[in-house]
Write a structure and sequence with these properties.
Length: 143
């Protein structure tokens, strides 16, 4: 099991700095791309393109949420994380190389929706990463 996304496995984290293009805008990291989707306002989304992950998280907490956010946030995260690994073949290979380990976004900041804290949590980010990895592994095997 890989139970923390730092050190050797920091590339699995949404705080890992690598550009990701999503819906026509390029963000410095997946954290910024994700928080930008909390609004439909394109000018607000553009503000996220230059932010580091911490800045994006902070701004994401301050903007009004789009009305359907709770219904779409997991799919949006899946799409953005998929884009990250499709756009960076080196990271895709590193993700594939984690197979068949269970990926758990262990954390100390009490995020029990996207990860696991003190043994409790839904680990939605870990599940997304494993699902994406499974697709890439199958594509690799089928050449």
């Amino acid at each position: 099991m890989i139970d923390k996304f730092y050190g050797r496995y920091f590339f699995l984290s949404n705080f890992y700095e690598c550009p990701v293009n999503y819906k026509g805008l390029t963000y410095n990291n997946t954290e910024a791309a994700f928080h930008a989707q909390k609004t439909f306002d394109i000018e607000t989304q553009k503000r996220f393109t230059t932010l580091n992950p911490s800045e994006a998280k902070k701004l994401g907490r301050a903007i009004p949420l789009r009305p359907d956010w709770e219904n779409v946030k997991v799919k949006i995260m899946e799409d953005i994380v998929t884009a990250k690994f499709q756009q960076h073949p080196d990271l895709q290979k590193k993700l594939i190389d984690t197979y068949p380990e269970e990926l758990v976004e262990g954390n100390w900041w009490n995020d029990t929706f996207w990860g696991v804290c003190n043994g409790a949590g839904l680990n939605n980010l870990g599940k997304i990463l494993m699902n994406i990895r499974d697709i890439f592994v199958k594509e690799t095997l089928n050449g």
